[in-house]
Each structure stands twice: as C-alpha cells, then as structure tokens.
Write a structure and sequence with these properties.
Bound molecules: guanosine-5',3'-tetraphosphate
Strand order of the largest sheet: 27-24-26-25-29-30-28-31
Number of helices: 13
Helix content: 25-40%
CATH superfamily of the largest domain: P-loop containing nucleotide triphosphate hydrolases
Shape: globular
Distance between the termini: 39 Å
CATH topology of the largest domain: Rossmann fold
Strand content: 25-35%
Oligomer: single chain
C-alpha cells in the first residue's frame, strides 16, 4: 500500500459523553464489530468506578491498567480505526480536552432519557472550537426516554450544532421495535442481544411489507415521521459535517448492540481521514513524506520503583519508524526510539512503523512535555494544545525547607505532564496550582513526596477563573494591569493571566475594560 493509501484509510476518533451515558458500552461494541475483542464485557476501559471517587490511589491503579486501552486500534472494512479513550472521571477533564486535540473526529453519546448533560456540553465546546466533525449516538432506546424530535431540538440548542437524523427509532422503551436507517435505507428490527450482531434488511419505507414487520400503526407513524424529517431537515451534507457544522444523529441501544453497526458503517464512510494540522510555521499536510508529530498526553507510571512515563505522540504527517533519528524540536536534538509501542485493542506492542493518524507510545524519562514536537528535521511547533481555565485553585507552599529544590523540580515536571496548571502571582511571587477537580491536589501531594521526596502544603485562595488577556489598546491594558496588580499572574509559559475572584468581579472587569479580551483558554 502506498503512503497515501495507508493514511487515507485511517480514522482516528474519540467517543465522548457525560458519565453513564454509555461511552464504555459503545466503545466495547465497536471493538466487537472490529473483531478486536470477542465477547462483550472484555474491556474495562478508562472507566473509573463510581465507588472509588474518594480513593484516588484506586483510581490511579485503574488508570494504570487502562494505559493499554488509552488507544484502541483495529481493522474494520479495510479501514484502520484508532479509538482514543478519554477518562470518565470529571476530575480528569483536562486529559480529555487534550485527547480531543489528537482526534480527527468525535462520536458523542447521549442518553435518550437524560438528553444533553453538563459534561457533554463542555466537551462539545472544545469540539466546536476546533471545528471537529461530530456524530451523535442517542443511546438507551430500550428504556423509556424522550420524544426523538424533542431530543433533536435539544441537541441543536444545547450543543450549538445543526443536526440531521440518519436513523429513526420505531417507538421506545419496552415497545422499541427498531430503527429505520435513513443513510442506507434499511430496516433494522430490534432483537435484544448483548453479544450478537443484528442483521438489517434493505428496505424501502413505502413498501407495503413494512406493515408485516411492525404493524399498521407504527408503519404509519414511521412514514409520517420520515416525511416530516425530510421536510424539516435538509439532506445530509457531508461538507457541513466535515466542517463541524452539522452532526448526523443515530439512535440505538449500545448495551443491546443495536444501531451500533449502522453507526460504524456510516462512520467509516463519512468520517475524515487525518487532516491538515496547523503549526506556527506552516500548515502540515498529512500526506507529506516527512514525519512530524506532537505529544498530547503523558501517562506516568505510579509505581515508585519504575518511574517511567509513556508519551503519547499523534503522528501528523508521513511515517514514523522505529530506530530512526527524529528531531526533538524543543531540545534541538536528534533522538531515536528503540521500543515505540502501538496500541492494538487491548494489547500494547512494539511497532516498527506508524502512519499519520496513528498514535505512538514512547517510553520516556522526563524528556517530553505536553505539546512537544518531533519531526524528521524541520523546525515546527504545533498549535492548538490549549490550557483551559482551571476550576479550583490553591496556593502551594513548601512544607520541608530542606527540600525546596526537589519541590521546584517536582512541580515543574508534574506540570509538564499536564497534571495541573501553575500560575505565579506577579505581586507576591506565590505559586498557585489550578486543577479541574479536588483529586489532582491529592495526586500532586502524593507524587511530590513519593517521587521527589518533597513535601507540600495547600493554602486556600478564593478564585473563580483564570483568564488569558489581550488587547490592541496598550494603554488600557497597562491601566488594567496596574489596577489589578494583586490578581495578575504568569502561567507556566510566561503568559499574562488575570485571576478573577468571582463571576461578578469578572463581569465588572469586562464591563469597565471593554477593549480587553478575556479568554478562558490559552489559545484564542
Ligand atoms: P459511561 O462509560 O458513559 O460512563 O457509561 P457505561 O457504558 O459504563 O454505561 C453506564 C450504564 O448504562 C451501565 O450500567 C450500562 O450497562 C448502561 N447502558 C449502556 N448502554 C445502555 C443501553 O443501551 N440500554 C440500557 N438500558 N443501559 C445501557 P451500570 O448498571 O451502571 O453498569 P454495569 O453494571 O451494567 O456495568
């Protein structure tokens, strides 16, 4: 196969959802169709058990086990599929945001009864920012849920994207009879099965045979619904989907393996192969001969005896090969890797080559940080790995004056891994750690002690958001910084950040300083 063919057949995506909507179940069924696993229930995925929320060591253990499932590659219908798993636990949302920078498209799972939930909304914001193509799977049709038209309205309104149903449910809950696939024009009758793959019938909805399958009443309703759909929604437009403006919607039940194959078949048809990537220097085309890639995630081994990490590299162009010298751009140094790993379903194995779209795992001892670029030699810096405003903030203080060097090194390395964000207050020089959840504070304290021999103490600080600021009005910017000097900080890259104490204070600042733009992420 040529380089072009290899790259064209790749589909790299993530399944995202609010916890419990069915992400793990759907992922597992996709693997089942891909022949990557043979029985349902085999994947434990990155799902963190709800019972373990207060015990982060337990969570880390599960995360450790799940390194192998961080990326699940398999072959399906002449395509190479890479599913990037995202942690289900809300406190690791920052990990999920970064993973979204490495995918070419996304499948969003929504619970038919609960509709759009908070986490879905947030993740979708990140997708919109990046114009990521999105497909939606409305799950749990085997349970009582909402009217499908109502769900579509909610999806449009809440996720701020146009939608187009490509399948349509026939009743719901105990009376659920199946779906009509509008993409393939087939009738898929529901047979609850946790393990089997259901067959679908090519079917013209006008055929009088429909009555034989689902009865007079439902046949009429289905025909009316489909007519309404064609009236309300424009025909499916693939360009709109690829531009991230239009989301095709499928209905089904992941648990019962229903509607999943239709989703997957349509997905391999319409989802994008690796796309152009922007760097500070130029746009990189995936089909270029030369290799380039960036680190989007670093997974630390929590075992203190083996302090190694795995750096996850998304190949953006060309082909990556084992034992070939590549340039680590930040170090301006050539490096080669003797044991890069590929992720195939649940296995992790040494690989010889990987193509644009693939994810490579590089064993690492502190050489990499999030956002680092590797190339065949060119000086490139990939854009689009934003930091998002944390939700929680604490001062970090040294609790063992003899170990201040260790503490500093530990903080620096943990921040490079992307565990949390560091801000330095410009007024008093104190260091502030910002996280998405409470768990990270415990993780940092534990790891500083066990990996660096340093002790830290947390002190409260009342902050609402970190905002990256910019303005074309230099005088106003200077005035703002002077007035808010106690709340100005630098992030780890030295960018200026305003730390707002409350929503009210932020609103007042926005009102009083109209020429300043306040951003909730570092890439604006
Ligand atoms: P998540 O990764 O998005 O957090 O969700 P997950 O797949 O773990 O699913 C959450 C719960 O919803 C699970 O039940 C799962 O079995 C159930 N579920 C998923 N898809 C469907 C579906 O199509 N229909 C129905 N009725 N249920 C579905 P649980 O009881 O929390 O866990 P488990 O004991 O079944 O593993």
């Amino acid at each position: 196969m040529t380089l072009k063919e290899e790259i064209q057949r790749r589909r790299t995506f993530a399944v995202i959802s609010h916890p419990d909507a069915g992400k793990t179940t759907l992922t597992e069924k996709l693997l089942l169709f891909g022949g990557a696993i043979h029985v349902a229930g085999a994947v434990k995925s990155n799902k963190i058990k709800k019972t373990a929320t207060s015990d982060w060591m337990e969570i880390e253990k599960q995360r450790g086990i799940s390194v192998a499932t961080s990326v699940m590659g398999f072959e399906y219908d002449r395509h190479k599929i890479n599913i990037l798993d995202t942690p289900g636990h809300q406190d690791f949302a920052e990990d999920t945001y970064r993973t979204l920078t490495a995918v070419d498209s996304v499948i969003v799972v929504v619970d038919a009864a609960k509709g759009v939930e908070s986490q879905t909304r947030k993740l979708m914001e990140v997708c919109r920012m990046r114009h990521t193509p999105v497909m939606i799977f409305v799950n749990k049709l085997d349970r009582e849920g909402r009217d499908p038209f109502e769900i579509l309205d909610e999806l449009e309104e809440e996720l701020k994207v146009s939608v187009r149903p490509l399948s349509w449910p026939i009743d719901i809950g105990e009376r659920f009879r199946g779906v009509y696939n509008l993409y393939r024009n087939s009738l898929d009758l529901y047979k609850p099965s946790k393990q089997m793959v259901t067959e679908s019938l090519r079917f013209d909805i006008r055929s009088p045979e429909l009555e034989n399958h689902i009865g007079d009443l439902l046949s009429k309703k289905l025909r009316d619904d489909v007519e309404l759909i064609t009236e309300i929604y424009p025909a499916f437009d693939r360009d709109g989907y690829l531009a991230g403006k239009l989301a095709p919607v499928f209905f089904g039940s992941a648990l019962n393996n229903f509607g999943v194959k239709e989703l997957l078949d349509c997905f391999v048809d319409i989802a994008p192969s690796p796309r152009e990537v922007h760097t500070e220097e130029r746009v990189v085309d995936p089909y270029e001969e030369n290799f380039s890639g960036f680190v989007f995630k670093i997974h630390a081994n929590m075992d203190p005896n083996h302090r190694s990490c795995i750096a996850f590299v998304k190949v953006c162009s060309g082909k990556f090969e084992r034992n070939v010298n590549y340039k680590h751009v930040r170090f301006n140094r050539m490096m080669k890797f003797s044991s890069p790993t590929a992720f195939m379903a649940q296995r992790k194995e040494i690989m010889d080559e990987a193509y644009a779209g693939d994810i490579v795992g590089l064993p690492d001892n502190g050489n990499f940080k999030i956002g680092d670029t590797l190339t065949s030699g060119e000086e490139l810096h990939f854009k689009g790995l934003p930091s998002f405003s944390p939700e929680m903030f604490k001062y970090i203080e040294n609790a063992d004056p003899m170990k201040s060097k260790q503490l500093q090194k530990g903080i620096e390395q943990l921040m490079d891994e992307g565990v949390a964000q560091l801000f330095t207050n410009q007024f008093n020089g104190r260091k502030i750690i910002g996280t998405v959840g409470q768990l990270q504070f415990e993780v940092i304290q534990y790891r500083l002690l066990h990996e660096y021999g340093a002790q830290c103490r947390w002190e409260p600080i009342n902050l609402y958001k970190a905002c990256w600021i910019e303005s074309d009005d230099e005088a106003q910017l200077q005035d703002f910084k002077k007035r808010k000097y106690q709340y100005m900080a630098h992030d780890k890259e030295g960018r200026e950040v305003f730390l707002a104490e409350s929503n009210y204070i932020l609103m007042m600042a926005q009102q009083d300083f109209k020429n300043i733009r306040f951003h909730f992420n570092s890439e604006f």
